[in-house]
């Protein structure tokens, strides 16, 4: 039987990513423009399809006005 790569912790993490963006009143497109990435990248991290490296998490945290601990 295959193990799922999607854990409850990961699901909580991606929920917090989306909530932080919405709390900051930003669209995925606005986040992408401010970070110099694509809207599809933002979408994929919020869906849990891509993992977020620490440096990008730090950039997202600053943009959303959250600490990195908020996401962890």
Structure description:
The chain is mainly α. It has a single domain, classed as Orthogonal Bundle (434 Repressor (Amino-terminal Domain)), CATH 1.10.260.40. 67% of the residues lie in helices and 0% in strands. The protein contains five helices and no strands. It has helices spanning 8-23, 28-35, 39-47, 54-64, 68-71. Helix 2 packs across helix 3. It is globular. The protein starts with 7 loop residues before the first helix and ends with a helix. The model has no long low-confidence stretch (mean pLDDT 92).
Question: Layout of helices and strands, plus pairs?
Answer:
Elements: H1 8-23, H2 28-35, H3 39-47, H4 54-64, H5 68-71
In summary, what is this structure?
This protein is mainly α. It has helices at residues 8-23, 28-35, 39-47, 54-64, 68-71. α2 crosses α3.
* Biggest sheet character: none
**How much helical structure, as a percent, in the residues?**
55-70%
What's the CATH C level? Mainly Alpha
Distance between the termini: 29 Å
Beta-strand percentage range:
under 5%
What structural keywords apply?
globular; 0% strand; mainly alpha; 72 residues; 434 Repressor (Amino-terminal Domain)
